[in-house]
């Protein structure tokens, strides 16, 4: 067993799960580091919900992290504002999961988190393209998040900002780009 210590939370986890999935944990727990002697690894700046998502991933062995939240627990259809709020919360958690995967050097969790983020965007119809999302992506410093966010910004953009020719704006879909490389 190993303990993970965050700023305020200590979680006891089976070391075998961690060392199998994470290069970082494998290095820390299977070599002559203080962490292997103490059986504890510090993971700074992680929300418990993010680490819970990771633990769920390693214990269940599932590659599917997607959750759709278009209905309430009672089965009622949610209004647009509530859907957006839930999507923003989910996107933030998945950004953090990608950052944690990068920190832990867990390629499989990293890929599962990116897939879940893309599926969440498609399912909710809301893109994480706000100022807070951009700042968070830059703070995490994970190139794949920044590239994905750029793609979301372009995809969520309106076609009217693409000039057809001088003084005109494109309308409709993005066929203009295909016709004029």
Automatic annotation (TrEMBL):
CDD domains: BTB_POZ_ZBTB_KLHL-like
BTB domain span: 1-67
InterPro entries, per the entry: BTB/POZ_dom, SKP1/BTB/POZ_sf
Protein name: BTB domain-containing protein
Entry-linked SUPFAM superfamilies: POZ domain (SSF54695)
